[in-house]
Amino acid sequence: MSHKTDYAMKQPNWRRWWQPILYVLLPVTLYATGLHTEVIGRVQQLGLATGLFRRTASLPTAPVPKADYSLQLRTLDGNTVSLAQLQGKVIVLNLWATWCPPCVAEMTGLQKLYGKTQSDNIALVLLSVDENPEKVRRFIARRGFTMPIYTLASDLPAVFDTESIPTTFLIAPNGDIIDRHEGLGDYDNPQMLRFLQRLAR
Questions:
Q1: CA angle at residue 197 from 196 to 201, to 5 degrees?
Q2: Which of 49, 91, 121, 140 is placed for a possible disulfide with 200 were both Cys, Cβ 3.0 to 4.6 Å?
């Protein structure tokens, strides 16, 4: 019998079962601590860096739905505002949640887009559908985001209803919803920035 085989036979029993336990324990620990969203979101964020999820938009050729400006929003400090206060601007309305990995993954790109459009007639509205506003506040503070974050202060109008998050709506100054995207997207790219700035003019 070879020395290699002798060594394999002398391996302690724990080495045979620790790996299967680790495969179970690691996911359970991530879910129990709530870190699974952050971990999966970070992995998906690496996917965004490849450019595979780059979002672009163009003006539609068919009739499009109109935004419902009656939507009521609550700021993270508890004030209630209306989407109507942004009427006349280009609005990027993003529905997201703290427990949604693709939402977490695309938020860094949205933050960068916000930094590039603050001087334009463009408004980012990140609307969390979380039921607990305090959880949203903690998440935003931990990540250091400065873009406008809101929670729902009224029912979501039917035109913004979706069964998937993240969902992002691009609303023209005249109220036309010119684009609706369900799922992960990279909004921090030159094409999207130029399109939004052109639309704002």
A1: 115
A2: 121
Q: How far apart are CA 77 and CA 13, in angstroms?
A: 56
Q: Residue 99 maps to which CATH number?
A: 3.40.30.10
Residue 124 token pair: 């980012």
What angle is formed at CA 82 by the lines to CA 77 and CA 86, rounded to 5 degrees?
105
- Reading the block at residue 37, the tokens are 């969203």
Distance (Å, whole) CA 173 – CA 76: 25
Q: What pLDDT does residue 26 have?
A: 47
Which domain does 79 fall in, by range?
Answer: 1-201
Give the H or E element holding residue 78.
none
Q: How many CB atoms lie within 10 A of CB 189?
A: 18
Beta strand residue intervals within the chain, DSSP E:
72-75, 80-82, 90-96, 122-128, 149-152, 167-171, 177-182
pLDDT value at residue 8: 47
pLDDT for res 119 = 76
pLDDT value at residue 61:
66
**How many domains does the chain contain in total?**
1
Distance between CA atoms of residues 80 and 192, nearest Å? 30
Predicted TM-score (pTM) of this structure: 0.75
Helix, strand or coil, per DSSP, at residue 79 = coil
What would you report as the CA-atom Rg of the chain, rounded to the nearest whole angstrom?
22
pLDDT in tens, 118-169: 877 999 999 999 999 999 999 999 999 999 999 999 999 999 999 999 999 9
CA gap 60, 104 in Å, rounded: 28
